[in-house]
Amino acid sequence: MALTQIILEGILNNLTTLLVFLVVFILLWKYLQPSPYNFPPMPSWKIPFLGHLSFFNLKTHGEKDFWQAAKNLKSSTIAVKLGPMTIVILHKYEDMKECFMSDNFTGRGRVMLEELVFNGLLRDGPRWKEQRRFALSALRDLGLGKNRMEQKIQDECLYLTKTIEEYNGKPFDPTTITNTATSNIICSMVFGHRFEYSDQSFKRLMFLMNENFNDNLRKAMLSEMIPGTKYIPGDFFRMKRLKKNLDEIKETFLQPEFEQHLKTYDPNNIEDFIHAFIHEQKAREESTEQHWFNKQQLMWNIDDLFNAGTETTASTLRWSILCMLHNPNVYKKVRAEILDTIGPDRPVTMGDKRLLSYTEATINEIQRMHLIAPMGGLHSNEYTTEFKGYKLPPNTGILVNIYAIHHDPDHWDEPFKFKPERFIGPDGNFQKDDHIVPFSLGKHSCIGEGLARMEIFLFFVTLMQKFTIKSPDGHPLPPMEGTGGGTNAPKPYEVCFIRD
Ligand code: HEM
Question: Where, by residue number, does heme bind (predicted)?
């Protein structure tokens, strides 16, 4: 008895030491095991929990810092740790093509904030595949690339022109009107109707969406990357605000629109995205196959269409105006081409595109130099994947530095100069370059590319046709700097539009 007690006491007294020893041993053993994976070179310094997060300027999308890190490591493919995730970053067009065209990288990483956002078209997996296919076909049927959408944008050009005229040449910040015009195009496509620029409920919708996309979402995502921040009292990381805005959008706008569309649904008259969705939902009612055509999914899809399709196009238009202020010679040539070809009054059409080579070259140069999404969207692999001699574990993040591709000195002559002429071929006509990828490419490429291109062309050419633009008297030119928000918009500036 006494002996058993002595042994038991001995074990108990040393149990803590034993456990500590065991944990240290397992950790050391795991650490010393050769990893079955191998990653591209990584910047050497990293901070526990944050990884390389603190090395990058979070006021931008990190594009310049990542590129510099790649140059320092003498490798166009690098890896970084951002919070808990390892992310491989590509800097070459050929690598982007190989990676994004393959089926191996269609994931969206560990989906952040997934109970709140990113559950619609910006997602991954079978649900995303089904919804992407549906959205692409719905957008096509609703008139993308055909006259129907063109007509709606032309109508919006008239409203935009009229609103700008009301400023009488006085300086103003074009942020609100460009956002309103592009939001109205998404409204026409999704709800089947547009709003007046002065409509208070529309202003509120835009405010909520803009605040979420450009401010709340970014902060909430940061909180997901830094462990423990969720438990900080208050709402420093804007999680509550994000949710509150989403609830208001749903209750005040989406829900009533959905109810109204249910009442007016006519299978022979599908004129907008909501009716197309209800149509598909009804077609699947009897189906035993798994599908995601339900009301909640529609709400998420609409949220994604607004988030992805409003600010992006509006910011591109604001970069365009800014580029014209900074490059008066290009501006003069663009205006002259437009006025010589279309004249001052006729509405601009998509058919004019092939006649306006220099203008088209200028738009390409604007999108080359001023990216709305310089790092594109986050991709990831589902299974262990070999890529460029590296062996990546499942759920490795993949980002492409589109900024680096658009400025790659191996491809572009004087990449940091604004030179639309680089897109003019020997025959004097516009010449496309595949290395321009503002909409990304491959399996997750932007589904709104066709619509966005149409909007940018029609809005930009109309503005150039109708107005002389100039900086307010006595003011220096606004800086060519981006905000680095959800979309890399130019910093707010004022401009005068003078009606000719
Ligand atoms: C100048 C305007 C725009 C730019 C520069 C742009 C750019 C992009 C980029 C870079 C991506 C990420 C692709 C990837 O992860 O590889 C994307 C995705 C997406 N965009 Fe756009 N976009 C624009 C306008 C639009 C518009 C007007 C819509 C809506 C009609 C839209 C809807 C989407 C959607 C739904 C996705 C997610 C696609 C997927 O994951 O399968 N975008 N866009």
Answer: 446
